[in-house]
Structure formats: C-alpha cells, structure tokens
C-alpha cells in the first residue's frame, strides 16, 4: 500500500490536466473534480478518480491542489460551498492559481478558520512546461514547514522554491506576468512598425539576438506573429488580461504609476474585441498591427 499522501486536484483546464497527469503518472492517488465533468476524461483514463463534487474530492485527500482560472471560481468551489470548506480541517490546500495578493490572503484566512493549512503556489510557465514538469513553482506559506512537507508533490510538477509569507508569491507572479506581456507587446510593436516601414524583420531579429537585447523568448513568438498563427493556445489572452487587471489594481493600491501597464491593458482588450480572447496572448500582435 502506498504511503504517499492522497491528493485532490480541482481544475481541469489547459494547465490543470497536464499537472494532474504528472501526479497520476507518479503513482499518487488523485481524486479530481472540475465544473465541466467531460474535461476530466483524460485524467480518468490515466487512473484518477472522478468526484461528483469539490467537497467529495477535498474530503478524500490529505492535500488538495487548486488550479482554476480566477478567484471567483475558487471562491465558488471552496469558500461558498459549506461542505467543501468544512472538509479542509486538518488538510493542506495548495492554491496554484494566479490571483491577487489580497484574494489569496482572504482564502488563507477562510481555510485557517476551518482548521486547514494554506499554501499559495502560483506557477510560471505554459502548457509545455506543465507537460514536461518544468514549471517554476513559487510557494509561500506563513509557516515554511508547510511548503517543505509538500515539496515531493511540487517537484513532480516543476521546480519549487519558497518565496515567503502569504501574498508574496502572488505578488511575484503578477510582476512576472507584467514583464512577460510587456516584452510581448514591445516585440509586437517593433515587428509591426518595421513591417509597415517595408523593412526586413529577420534582420531586426538577428540584431536583437546578437546583442544586449538577446532573449530566447522573442524567437518563440516571432514566427507566430509574422504568420499570424497563434496556435496552440498556451496562455489565453483573456487570462493574461485578468492578470494585468490584478497587477494594475494592486499597483494602484500601493501607489505605483500604472500608466505603462494600462497601455498594455488596452492592447489586450482590443485583441479580445477582435476575437482573440481564447487565442494565445501573443495574438495581441493583431491588435497592434491589424491585418491589411
């Protein structure tokens, strides 16, 4: 009989399925729940047990991992569901979703009130990173021992590091995503500007990669932008806008000038308005440099 802790996994989206699959493949006993049950089929085929409710999944496990798209969804399945929240006593809840610092603090308080432990652990990476188990995992807890206890689980999904107290990891994640989308928007503008000037974008990329601006990430997005092919979706535009909105909201609260990020916010919104909401967020290129 396995001595590994029983796990629950809440969420079967683009990131949740490959993350949970790695846990099942690592021989953990995983109980899975998702609002849209059909999305659990790949996990069930691998050996996960599909639950009818989030409460059932949480009650059956020692450690519950939550990977949902937004705090509203987390609140609905954890805080607003009395049975689910009541099941957290003596258990560890690991929230790997990207949410705002204040939202995470509120979830931590709700779990603690019911006798559970809470770890905030957003990830940096996209679907290929999740599939290959190389996500950067930013783990925070008010007691570092909580993170230490689940390190073997986290290491199945990526490379965990302890960041600090609750809200620390969420803040780092919003800063990282702000930088990611800023670089993507800058690349889109530069490529569109050169294209409309009748100049060769390949020469531009050679210059970039041959000097102080060198960045492997630009090569990952260059071809898709030039071909206007943004498949597969590794990080949806709608979700990136959600994160940018959170960064702006928290930044304003902390007194930082958010004008630069608000410009990116408008570009993402334009991309959504022209139908790119579920496309990879690099499709913001179509908002920056509209089709002729």
From TrEMBL:
Report which superkingdom the organism of origin falls in. Eukaryota
Catalytic residues, per the record, are 173
Sorted alphabetically, which keywords does the UniProt record give? NAD, Oxidoreductase
> Where in the numbering of this chain does the 3-hydroxyisobutyrate dehydrogenase-like NAD-binding domain appear?
171-287
- InterPro entries in the record: 6-PGluconate_DH-like_C_sf, 6PGD_dom2, 6PGDH_NADP-bd, HIBADH-like_NADP-bd, HIBADH-related, HIBADH-related_NP60_sf, NAD(P)-bd_dom_sf
In this chain the 6-phosphogluconate dehydrogenase NADP-binding domain maps to 6-159
- The answer to whether UniProt assigns keyword Flavoprotein to this entry is no
Alphabetized Gene3D superfamilies for the sequence = N-(1-d-carboxylethyl)-l-norvaline Dehydrogenase, domain 2, NAD(P)-binding Rossmann-like Domain
Which GO MF terms are attached to this record?
A: NAD binding; NADP binding; oxidoreductase activity
SUPFAM superfamilies from the xrefs?
Answer: 6-phosphogluconate dehydrogenase C-terminal domain-like, NAD(P)-binding Rossmann-fold domains
As for family, the record states:
Belongs to the HIBADH-related family. NP60 subfamily.
PANTHER family per the UniProt record, alphabetical: GLYOXYLATE_SUCCINIC SEMIALDEHYDE REDUCTASE 1 (PTHR43580:SF9), OXIDOREDUCTASE GLYR1-RELATED (PTHR43580)
The name this protein carries in UniProt is 6-phosphogluconate dehydrogenase NADP-binding domain-containing protein
Q: What is the lineage of its organism?
A: Eukaryota, Sar, Rhizaria, Cercozoa, Chlorarachniophyceae
